Amino acid sequence: MNPILQLRDIRMRFGATVALDGVSLEVAPGEVHALVGENGAGKSTLMKILSGALAPDSGAMTLAGAAYSPAGPLAARRAGVVMVNQELAIAPHLSVAENIVLGAEPGGSVFVRHAESWRIAGAALAELGRPDIPLGVPAGLLGIAEQQLVEIARALALGCRVLVLDEPTSSLTQADTEKLFALVRRLRAQGKSVIYISHFLEEVTALSDRLTVLRDGRSVATARTAVTSAGEIARLMVGRQVSELYVRHNRAPGAVMLKVDNLAGPVKPSAATFELRRGEVLGIAGLVGAGRSELLRAIFALDAVRAGTVQVGVHAGPASPLRRWRQGVGLLSEDRKTEGLALKLSLEHNLTLPRLGAFVRPAALAAETATWIEKLGVRAAGPAQAVGALSGGNQQKIALGRLLRNGSDVLLLDEPTRGVDIGAKQNIYRLIDGLASAGKSVLMVSSYLPELLGTCDRIAVMCRGTLGPSRPVAEWTEHTIMLAATGAGNLGN
Asked: Any long-range contacts for 429-437 (C-beta under 8 Å, 24+ apart)?
């Protein structure tokens, strides 16, 4: 069968950095083709070229046998190549319906036929299995998971021959993930092609027909997924055998560092009580929308506290984010793009701005940043590079590094490995284990149950805004966590 899409010997350089070094990729009609690789392997650059956001230095592309070189993303969409990025491109002030038809408004952008826009948008959301998402509300008021579904609905509304999904489940609930998988399979049955990018290897093995592995800007392997194990995929990605993904040394919890008593926010959480001790990792599980992120934001004083108390060490009473920072509390936001980093600033500034000191020596700051780059395993051109130019996983390492440089004793980590490849995940897990072993206190929210079970000492489950009691990790399984998260079981409720 002739491929619907061919990329041949694609090369791309940014200054001295070689992003792509002769990458080739073929996608067949009606195929789900997974694209995997570590952060910085070249996946994002390759997809930007495919979607018209970048022009390659050399190489050629064909779509349905004809030369393909889109002048921009809109030209790519009109040709039938639509990309849904991991970093969302929602217009927050526009309605859900307006976002879904954005760039392809019926009647044009001036004389828009609104009734038809609503019909198209409603049909796309219904195909996703989420007709309950209101079409008239500003998209910025939706949660991240629902915003991601709006982006996927936009791709469906535009019509596509090749759909690129970049980490599409990173913010989805299990139920929405299953609906997305069913949609991808329907598209495949209709003869449409899907390029699926994910760091969750179980998704790759469950959903894709073939896979291509990128490493250091090169395509190192293409294989049928059914005959390739997850372990072999991981080995191809990192160029070595990946073992002992989760690390948890023997820890001796000490004094209470964070005490939360019946904490309630404006909406969520409705009730949360727990203690976090020095030298332990406490995991918070729960479905998207249960109130896990709101709990961390209330503790850090980013959100108002309606009732209850938060005590950090000996510090109690009213607080602000600055006061929490000075008390030794650091927050890693789930949304690194808008809250976690200043994307236009350099790595150096992102790491050091919160604690510069009275006198600043640029050479010393650059040297210190270089040390952190090496310590965190960040792939970057140097301290002066804009952090927005890094891959998502390397951005995450910089966001985490800022907390570590501050010397935070209590770390509030919201989805710390979201959008991070398996090699970087291993580094972050080792880092978390090292922090706890050194006496730091870690409160960790994650939607990925294996990493909670693999890294935490205790786990508590949040359901509809209420945090259940924490229990030793040995008392939990993925099944019992899901029962507690959905309110269907007694354990953890």
From this structure: 429/245, 429/246, 429/247, 429/454, 429/455, 430/247, 431/376, 431/400, 432/281, 433/247, 433/248, 433/249, 433/281, 435/404, 435/411, 436/251, 436/279, 436/280, 436/281, 437/249, 437/251, 437/279
